[in-house]
Amino acid sequence: MGQPISRFPIPALDELPEDVRNRIVAVQEKAGFVPNVFLTLAHRPDEFRAFFAYHDALM
């Protein structure tokens, strides 16, 4: 597989805050993959948390 193309830096999981990392791992275990939007949002942890707070409120 070639190099990913992205305009946003995609952080490595071990570089993320623990709560963000745990949420991404949980999604990966459930879905079998991590949606790109989650990895992109992880670049800005506060926005990632806000997105999931909204998601959790709706679901």
| Separation, N- and C-terminal Cα atoms | 35 Å
Kindly provide the name of the CATH class.
Answer: Mainly Alpha
Major beta sheet, specifics? Answer: none
Strand content: under 5%
Quickly count the helices: 3
The number of domains: 1
- Residues in helix, %: 55-70%
SS-based class: mainly alpha
What is the H/E order?
A: HHH
Number of strands: 0
Which CATH architecture?
A: Up-down Bundle
Q: Write down the Rg.
A: 12 Å
Question: Mean of residue pLDDT?
Answer: 88
The CATH homologous superfamily name equals: AhpD-like
The unreliable regions are: none
Shape label: globular
The third-level CATH topology is Single alpha-helices involved in coiled-coils or other helix-helix interfaces
How would you portray this structure in words?
It is a single chain. The protein has 59 residues and is mainly alpha-helical. The chain has a single domain (13-58), classed as Single alpha-helices involved in coiled-coils or other helix-helix interfaces, CATH 1.20.5. It contains 3 helices and no strands. The protein is globular. The model has no long low-confidence stretch (mean pLDDT 88).
Question: Can you give me a brief rundown of this structure?
Answer:
59% of the residues lie in helices and 0% in strands. It has three helices and no strands.
